[in-house]
Design a protein that fits this description.
This protein has a four-stranded mixed beta sheet with strand order 2-1-3-4. The relative contact order is 0.16. It is α+β, with helices and mostly antiparallel strands. 51% of the residues lie in helices and 12% in strands. The longest helix has 20 residues.
């Protein structure tokens, strides 16, 4: 029996996808007119098509600061970074390319992606205010006995903005709100995400 901290096990991680594998899967799903999960509605198929383009764009344009690069490269003990997401998740498409690129800076980081609906026992361990919000990044030691940090499902600014939207008396449409969110991602260029990750990663170096 595996002696691990929570629901993420070595057997589950073996079934997880690397970022390149996730990109290939998303491209294949788009070509077939499908997405991940049970909801195969036209809306979710369109989200997946958009996400494929978003990730493709980020793969070509994202930049990581010298501070982050030096920090990640200073990690000496192996870590596992597990991301819970789905192909239709817009926040995932905006954040995961950067998370994967950061992890790729150091070979001691094993970066894996799990589909939320395939592993409900994992997702339910990392709820956000009782909701299965994604993406969620969980960093653990390589033996899975110690949880190092958790990030997600989106940068703090957007968490606050979502609360404002839900209480917006003016009744901003979801389409307009979504457009605003993805415009923010494009303009922010992962700055907030990076600034939130830096102290989390730094905390893993304090032993």
């Amino acid at each position: 029996m595996e002696h691990v901290l929570g629901p993420i096990t070595h057997d589950i991680l073996k079934k997880g996808l690397t970022y390149p594998e996730f990109r290939i899967l998303t491209e294949k799903l788009v070509a077939e007119g499908k997405t991940t999960g049970a909801n195969q509605s036209e809306a979710y198929l369109e989200y997946t098509r958009l996400n494929h383009q978003r990730m493709k764009r980020w793969d070509k344009t994202l930049k990581i600061s010298t501070e982050m690069t030096a920090l990640v490269q200073s990690i000496s003990e192996p870590q596992v970074w597990t991301v819970i997401t789905e192909a239709w998740c817009g926040d995932g498409a905006q954040s995961i390319p950067f998370l994967a690129a950061v992890a790729d800076l150091n070979p001691v980081i094993d970066f894996r992606i799990l589909m939320r609906d395939e592993y409900p026992e994992v997702m339910d361990e990392y709820l956000t205010n009782g909701a299965r919000s994604i993406p969620k990044l969980i960093s653990m030691t390589a033996d899975l006995t110690c949880e190092l940090f958790i990030w997600g499902p989106k940068p703090d600014y957007l968490i606050t903005r979502l609360k404002e939207y839900k209480h917006d008396a003016k009744g901003l449409s979801y389409q307009d709100y979504s457009t605003e969110v993805h415009l923010w991602y494009a303009r922010n260029r992962n700055h907030d995400l990076e600034q939130e990750l830096i102290p989390l990663i730094q905390s893993t170096l304090i032993v």
